[in-house]
Prior knowledge:
A two-stranded antiparallel ribbon has the order 1-2. The protein is globular and about 40 Å long. It has one domain (about 20-130): Arc Repressor Mutant, subunit A, CATH 1.10.10. The protein has helices at about 20-35, 40-55, 60-70, 85-90, 120-130, and strands at about 95-100, 110-115. It has about 140 residues and is α+β, with helices and mostly antiparallel strands.
Amino acid sequence: MMPTLFDPVNVGPSPAGSAAAGEALKCAALALHDARRPALLRAARRFVLLKLLADPGTPVTADDVRAAVELPPGVNPKAFGATFSPLALAGIVRAAGHAKSARKSAHARLVTIWRLNDAAKALAWLRDNPAPAAEGTVPA
């Protein structure tokens, strides 16, 4: 019988050796995005937290970030992939499931649904990470 696109493949350990190896690679890639685009990711994270604090019952997804935070010319939208992990690792937000992306260019791929986990930590993060200064202005 000919395998199809939907047949399970390689359900054992990953070729890299373990899920931990894959997680380490992901963390390294996210750290690289953070180092290269700190102002963009700070703006994205601030948007996420402000939205969740304004209405704690409403979740947020990467689609919301893409719609609200302007992507500078020449920057790959994958940079936004580093938005949520540090907030989740800090216990500020939590994954609450998945939904199909509403963005046409995302081809209905699954995106994580995020919810507020700790409002006090969110407020502290916002205090410690002020909005990036507008281009051409001098921070106070």
